[in-house]
């Protein structure tokens, strides 16, 4: 069991809550903004339309995060869960957008979200496909899939160039990483709990002193902007709906795994009904996001790392994160300030957060019964998931549909683990009452020797 500083239902003091909520916001903001930036650039949208997409994404993420944490009737998992625009939809969004523009993306998202809404009705059955061996694989793959993102941040960006891996970038990332480690290990109370945001703040000050901060985005940003529902309008192309439906299926698998990781991080038993509430919020939230002119949203895995690292599992803290994201959408200048954080600063903190998810996955795997069957499931699933994570070009010559489904290491690892768990037969372990005190590992060895 994880030792938590704040349990799921705890309400920290107001100032502490604000600081911890800001920490979650900083961990998620880069990912939320990145999707509309990538899609907008691919579709060659004017600057003002890209800004409108970003504002809509922040607003949508904020509203759905609040609902996911607080819950409204049967909607919302009621755990510290940050929602944001997902890269799982980027491929489908760009392909649809090139043919039908942003209205086609939003209409296809609205229609495709039905897949997740309907899928939430079957979560008790889907939950049975995730025993401990499968859950451990998924949690581990979430962390392993996110580490390359942190490494790219630490190196200075996602596109290797002259500045990629520069000693200055790596030095700043290492400085932030060591600062976070020191605060977690030696800090007490709020200092340890807010280690990520404090480490990033120290790293930001260092970059500011070195003249590495560019404030041009802040100078150009609007101070206030009203929400613009249906700003682009909507169209419903059949091909686009199918593409988005597939993306939602993939996301449902990833989100289920993320919820399992969140359950492990918060010491919460993830029952089928609990998962159903979370998946339903994902689906309805994406539909709401489309109406608000935002790309689809899904649960952010990186924020599970924040919970694992800091021990802050309060859903009320993350509900305030939703409010902060909403405010960032209303006041674009706030989001612009956060965007000025240099990538190496994010990389140093991100490496620590994502590695903590791997640690949680390894702990889950260590509790799985040591049998040849379970070893095969875990080894093959993690191996296949890593294959597409470290070598995405592996799928380059396959049909676009295949790349869409199997482009994520989390999805591949989860699907392989689920299939092997269903296909490989279980060996019944038979022993009499006298064997009850014999260690399980010894029994396993004896059975295999026989």
Automatic annotation (TrEMBL):
Q: How does it sit in the membrane?
A: Multi-pass membrane protein
The similarity comment for this entry is: Belongs to the nucleobase:cation symporter-2 (NCS2) (TC 2.A.40) family.
Q: Which domain of life is it from?
A: Bacteria
Q: Which GO terms describe its cellular component?
A: plasma membrane
Q: Does the keyword Kinase apply?
A: no
Name the UniProt key words of this record, in alphabetical order: Cell membrane, Membrane, Transmembrane, Transmembrane helix, Transport
The places in or outside the cell where this protein is found are:
Cell membrane
Transmembrane as a keyword of this entry, yes or no, is yes
Please identify the protein, giving its name as recorded. Answer: Nucleobase:cation symporter-2, NCS2 family
Residue spans crossing the bilayer: 50-67, 79-98, 104-122, 129-151, 163-184, 196-218, 238-265, 317-339, 345-364, 376-394, 406-424
State one molecular function term (GO).
xanthine transmembrane transporter activity
